[in-house]
Design brief:
By secondary structure, this protein is mostly helical. Helices cover 57% and strands 5% of the residues. The protein contains eight helices and six strands. The strands form three sheets. Strands 1-2 form a two-stranded antiparallel ribbon. Strands 3-4 form a two-stranded antiparallel ribbon. The protein has a two-stranded antiparallel ribbon with strand order 5-6. The radius of gyration is 19 Å and the shape is globular. 32% of the residues are buried. The N terminus is likely disordered.
């Protein structure tokens, strides 16, 4: 077996990591800032073509919005990314404006090209990413509204997705009725990651208990 610790800190690995970081900051982030951004909806397009033009949008996912909220939150305070705080704020507003279900609570999976709810299911993977993104965003801005949304998402996960056996349904209907999905590994993994992100930014006994119970149930 190769020496992973040695290879991870080798000059070759460091050079590869630095090259990837440069590519990310100089190529990928500018694409998301520019042609990958729909200023009318204040949302990222789902995909670009080879000429860096947006493909005709079929949908916008709350998950993609949350992922970019995490990304730009991470860039807040970076002198090379003075745009990060404004973009993160726009993404946070869009998450609430476009995807939050004011009637039933939680967040829709997707909206259509015109901004109307499309896939109205409640998806654990999506809610886990919302938790993850809001934890990172709140860590940077410490705004009460951000923590309020974080707490609301935690409540939804605990009250709606939890099954009573320390596991969680992967998908539920718009009105939280069952779809027979059962628990799935990938959403549970990202939920554990979201719990860890929350615990990294605040003490939270309920989240710590939920994380430990989830890990034990998965084991």
């Amino acid at each position: 077996m190769p020496d992973v610790s040695r290879s991870a800190t080798s000059p070759e690995s460091s050079a590869l990591f630095n090259a990837m970081q440069q590519h990310f900051h100089k190529v990928i982030v500018p694409l998301w800032q520019g042609p990958g951004w729909n200023p009318q909806l204040a949302l990222p397009y789902e995909a670009l073509d080879a000429e860096q033009r947006p493909l005709p949008p079929q949908r916008y996912r709350a998950m993609a919005c949350a992922r970019q909220l995490y990304l730009f939150s991470q860039l807040i305070g970076d002198a090379a990314a003075p745009f990060a705080e404004e973009r993160a704020a726009a993404l946070f507003r869009s998450l609430q404006r476009h995807f939050h279900d004011a009637e039933h609570g939680g967040w829709f999976y997707s909206i259509d090209a015109d901004g109307a709810p499309l896939d109205r299911r409640k998806d654990l993977y999506t809610h886990a990413f919302i938790l993850f993104a809001c934890a990172h965003y709140w860590a940077k801005v410490r705004e009460p509204l951000v923590e309020s949304v974080l707490n609301a998402a935690l409540e939804v996960v605990a009250l709606r997705f939890a099954r009573g056996d320390e596991l969680y349904e992967a998908s539920l209907a718009e009105d939280w009725s069952g779809l027979g999905s059962g628990p799935l590994q990938n959403p549970l993994m990202h939920l554990a990651e979201a719990f860890l992100a929350i615990l990294a930014v605040r003490e939270d006994a309920a989240v710590q208990t939920a994380l430990l119970e989830l890990c034990q149930a998965m084991q």
